[in-house]
Amino acid sequence: MTSDFFSHMQKRGLIAQVNDAEALIEALRKPHDNKSEAFPGVYCGFDPTAKSLTLGHLVPLLGLRRAQDHGMRPIILFGGATGLIGDPTGRTDMRPMSTKEDITRYIENFSNLVRRYFRFDVPNTPIFVNNLDWIGPMSWLDFAREIGVHFTVAKLLSADVNKSRLEHGLTFMEMGYQLLQSYDFLELSRKHNCILQTGGNDQWSNLLGGTDLIRRVEHKQAFCFTQPLIVDSQGRKLGKTSGNAVWLDSSTTSPYDFYQYLRNLSDETVEQTFRQLTFVSLAEIRELCAPTANPNAAKERLAWEVTALVHGKEEADKAVAAAHALFGGGGDLSSAPRVQLGKGEVESGVDIVTLLAKVGISPSKGEARRLVQGNGLLINNEKCSDVGYKLRMQDFAQECGGMLIRKGKKDYTIVELV
RNA sequence: GGGAAGAUGCCGGAGUGGUCAAUCGGAGCAGACUGUAAAUCUGCCGCCUUAGGGCUACGUAGGUUCAAAUCCUACUCUUCCCA
Description:
alpha/beta; Rossmann fold; Tyrosyl-Transfer RNA Synthetase; Structural Genomics Hypothetical 15.5 Kd Protein In mrcA-pckA Intergenic Region, Chain A; six-stranded mixed sheet; five-stranded mixed sheet; 20 helices; 13% strand; globular; RNA-binding
């Protein structure tokens, strides 16, 4: 059944570039002993550059899960070592260096986030590794002699990713990044029978570095493919809202906001996102996204499916209920985003502008003022265009258990008194 | 090591003594239209403000001047050319 993996990924639009498709299909066809270490391994690395993972990381994560479902062993690598260096790919300047303590903390959070996407009740359970474990103890000299010797500087410089960086200052540290990632693949190939590496489309040259290294050192063929970056109809990277990333972590992006983000995707993006971010069958997706079908029904389903994967069915249902309540009128508001305000504030006659800034609905008073002046604010579904409006206790006595603030068309917040 | 150029707001990129909180484009926010979509059009887009103004900003630190993003000095960083 591993043999179906590749075509499954292709049909879902999850493969951008492959190094050797035919040989990979052939390798996956090879029967193996289900009880031993012999599951062919597939790995993808995640560098701890931020405290949480984003929507964009969901593609490779689910890709590993799809591999698991097809009888491969998923290997999730955390870049404890590579995170200290920073991948120069696609960047015009160096990443700010994180501290070692930050990276340790991030990795802890990553491993908590990631577990839910895999199965542990099967023989091919996932493996979690940290590349600091093998890169950390290695001396520079050993590394240079064992790994560095297989890379020429000309080759590294010819990579487009490095070329563009050359003008802006590429450091020695960062140029070593590809070597580290290549070494990871070699190590996993030796230890865990890992035959395949996946990554984002921008990772192509890093992935090839690994397959090259394995061929040179082990005289074995290894495989890699990249996955398309998920983008919207304008080709913008998916997963940013209001300039902020959409995180997989419920404490940074609430399940409601997560749901809303997907619910608001543009029409053209829905079918592709459906294939890439859900396990819904292709036949059903076709039906949902047919030209005659209701695009809003498709979006609701898509948003629910992905939210359920990331936050669980219960949270997804709550997000739907909240959305229906806010947009459809009536229904259950209990899951809408909430913020709290001290009673004393209202008693002392706080005005609307101060309140918006205080609870974080607007980042500053000036912006709150502009919002109100621009007719963009509704209090309990009534337009409020009076900048000096003073809140009263009865404003907070709505059914939802507080005051319903609507900013613009679809940004709802309940302010409750404590 | 020597020489040249450069560092501006979230990003790109104008500005070269006052009229600069800084042209323009992108991103973002809001309004109209709509389907919680796209496209389009309109307004906003440093912070505070009792709306008169105040404060902080043009790599960092000093200086010249009534007045500096703009001139001078030192420093930091980057790019290019030569070695």
